[in-house]
Amino acid sequence: MSKCPECGKTLKLEKREISPGVYSNVEVCPGCEEEWLDENEYEELRALFKRKVFRVGGSLAVRLPKEIADAIGINDGDNLRISAKDHKIIIETAP
Ligand SMILES: [Zn+2]
Question: The whole model's pTM is what?
Answer without folding.
Answer: 0.49
